[in-house]
Amino acid sequence: METLAVGVTALELVAVFVAALSGGLAAVRKKFDMFGVLVLAWVCGLGGGILRDVLIGDTPPVGISSWTLVAAAVGAGLVTCVLHPGLARLRRSVIVLDAAALGLFVVQGTTKSLELGAGPLPSAVVGVLTGVGGGVLRDMLVGEVPMIFADRQLYASPAILGAGTVAALWSADLWSWWMGIVVAVLVLGFRLVSLWRGWLFPHVGVGWTGRWGRESGSMDT
Amino acid sequence: METLAVGVTALELVAVFVAALSGGLAAVRKKFDMFGVLVLAWVCGLGGGILRDVLIGDTPPVGISSWTLVAAAVGAGLVTCVLHPGLARLRRSVIVLDAAALGLFVVQGTTKSLELGAGPLPSAVVGVLTGVGGGVLRDMLVGEVPMIFADRQLYASPAILGAGTVAALWSADLWSWWMGIVVAVLVLGFRLVSLWRGWLFPHVGVGWTGRWGRESGSMDT
Amino acid sequence: METLAVGVTALELVAVFVAALSGGLAAVRKKFDMFGVLVLAWVCGLGGGILRDVLIGDTPPVGISSWTLVAAAVGAGLVTCVLHPGLARLRRSVIVLDAAALGLFVVQGTTKSLELGAGPLPSAVVGVLTGVGGGVLRDMLVGEVPMIFADRQLYASPAILGAGTVAALWSADLWSWWMGIVVAVLVLGFRLVSLWRGWLFPHVGVGWTGRWGRESGSMDT
């Protein structure tokens, strides 16, 4: 278990680092100055966990109190400052790593909340928020509508399924630590398969009103 | 009192449902996908209460931990997905129900905070936030300046008067449960009368500098 | 010490008032109505402290529970409503007072967090947030990208140095109350000198990639 814990911590640092890169790159694209790049990296890497900790009352959040986590996020910001022209070429690897980060954040956010006694529903919600919250905050800080609400990609869906699965297994007293790895891998796999196959979430109006056979022509008012 | 509690809970679910509809509709208007519509409905129906609970330290907030409340908000999102072309025609009813939700949220937010021992000023502030916070978060998430700050309508004013009245009565030891109903109805009435009579909040510069008799021509710098 | 405490409280009210003015003016510029001006003044004067208190779990935050602080912020909003045409002419004084407010907020935010036992890193982070958070929230509420991320001015840098110094001295058991005054004055001085000399933060890509001697032509992707 000791080795596992070390492994999970290392994984978590990698996940924060990768998520923070996407914040740093968004800031570079918006021509932020170096302070802005570092802050966006921090928000994107650790913002989801900060929301989680504030919502479950575990203050101060680890996103501001853990030296290693803050160093991983700010370090990613510094790397973005120096290497951002090259990072664009790594787009494919970043997408895979980001999907892995999503799986890890969701499992870890949900279990942390359950361990603190927060019940299955709030734990699943903060688990999802841990996974997707950083990206939402990033988009709001650069003045854009959160991508996750409108791009129809299956990004939140694997997060919701993963967090729901963890909360359900826990409530049924069936949880053991290795299931976390399985669920995280499933979230990663679901995300990657959906990207690979080009699965998209239904537009509101199309998929739904179609089932009732009306409004098929004009679905947006 | 038991019957009253059940009645209040039912009322609260209706209030959350109605408030969530406005979030869902805003998301449809912005062409969000289905996940975005559900999230906006949740934020708009329960975001004010989540702000309240975070500010008074009652975590996890009921907006993520209560099955019935979350179901009411997400249910409104699903209804918006299916029925949004028809909801536009219900605009008038939605305005009345939204004013009722405002009254209920303000009274319930203020009293919850007072019951947790938070003092009259913070309780009035979180009472107002409970009423108007969801709409502010909704507007920020769809990338718009919060309507409530600029549309000059009397929406926050009834909320402030209602929350102030509750906090004052409570501080003077004059509170009893039926006053909550009276104040909620007064907030609803004030809101509807202001809409009916077309009352508007003064533009900064006009109403005010006029009283000092200057800057009557050009009021905005 | 009693006199000092009174002096600090008076200073804090002035700092909140000055910071709130900048929120009120931003709201007037965006043609918000009077309610919007008052809310923006409150958010800008007290939002940083509210973030601090939520992050360190000291709820309800003083930004909603202290009569004098709320009165100072809302009072600044009222003053903005009445006097905004004249306030533009005071720009120079406002900049100096705002730099003083920054120094005070940073020192007071960091020490408050340390006193509550939050450790040097989270305390420095919330100290910086206390100083700059109100302005970030102001910019988000008026629909703009936070100025502090992109204007290259040295505003966050003095805050970070100040908060880091306080946290380091505290951790080394070298802290005594008068150092707070020294650090606040240093933050103020650093900010003013940087404005006077026109110091700017490096653009990402220029200052950094130059040191590795590449990408000197096109730095933004």
Summarize this structure briefly.
The structure is a homotrimer of 221-residue chains. Helices cover 76% and strands 0% of the residues of chain A.
Describe this structure in words.
Chain A has 221 residues and is mainly alpha-helical. Chain A has one domain. In chain A, helix 1 crosses helix 2, helix 2 runs antiparallel to helix 6 and helix 5 packs antiparallel against helix 6. The longest helix of chain A is centred in the first third of the chain and has 28 residues. Chain A is globular and about 50 Å long. At the A-C interface, helix 1, helix 2 and helix 4 of A face helix 6, helix 7 and helix 10 of C.
Helicity range of chain A: over 70%
Gyration radius from CA atoms of chain A, angstroms: 18 Å
* Biggest sheet details of chain A: none
Q: In what range is the share of β-strand residues of chain A?
A: under 5%
Q: Total helix count of chain A?
A: 10
Oligomer: homotrimer
Largest interface: A-B, 38 and 34 residues
Query: Roughly what is the average pLDDT of chain A, rounded to an integer?
Result: 86
- The shape of chain A, in one word, is globular
Order of helices and strands of chain A: HHHHHHHHHH
Spatial separation of the terminal alpha carbons of chain A: 56 Å
- Structural class estimated from helices and strands of chain A: mainly alpha
Number of separate strands of chain A:
0
| Contiguous runs where pLDDT drops below 50 for at least 5 residues of chain A | 206-221
Task: Tell me the number of structural domains of chain A.
Answer: 1
